[in-house]
Amino acid sequence: MQAIVETLFDAVYLISVITIGILMIRGSKGQAQFRLFGWMAVVLGAGDSFHLVPRALALCTTGLENYTVALGLGKWITSVTMTVFYVLLYYVWRQRYKVQGRGGLTAAVYALAGLRVLLCMMPQNQWLSADAPLSWGIYRNIPFALLGLVVIVLFFCSAKEHNDRAFRWMWLTIVLSFGFYIPVVLWADAVPLIGMLMIPKTCAYVWTVLIGYFAMKKEVK
Predict the structure, then answer these.
(1) Cα(first)–Cα(last) distance of the chain, in Å?
(2) What is the maximum alpha-carbon separation in the chain?
């Protein structure tokens, strides 16, 4: 039952975000913020597919324990693409609110993203092992969480300052995604049921993408 429900959920998610992303790229009509948002959605869906597709195959065939390498490689790729997702979201913020300068902020975003990717590349992560160390799961997610926090604060302050109703809940979608993700990183190995939090975390990302899509439909004529 889990295999059927989870596979259907993941299939709907991947198809939805990639389709919305393509629609935004094609329908942006020269507006950089929505074209970036479209690419962001495609990166999200394409990156997650490297982990979710092998997981679906494992659940529907011989089990997760026989797909350790594929699942580990998928998590590795997804970890990098999610970092790219937040860098693109930062540039959506710059485009939407017509931010100029702020070189220090941009440098901080790239530094956190670069550190995250560097930590993801370290062999100590043991991505392809069934017993990957929790400590490195925490290390690589520290700069990722800080990057997310920066983006949360930027969207919260800017949406409030500009009375931007279309993006007023963008900050909350990111808060929710991290709120559901962090317990999975910390305790899912010990309490597998906590892994179910990835479902609402995924829904939070779908909400993020839909915010951009509906804003484009309203603002692009």
Answers:
(1) 45
(2) 53
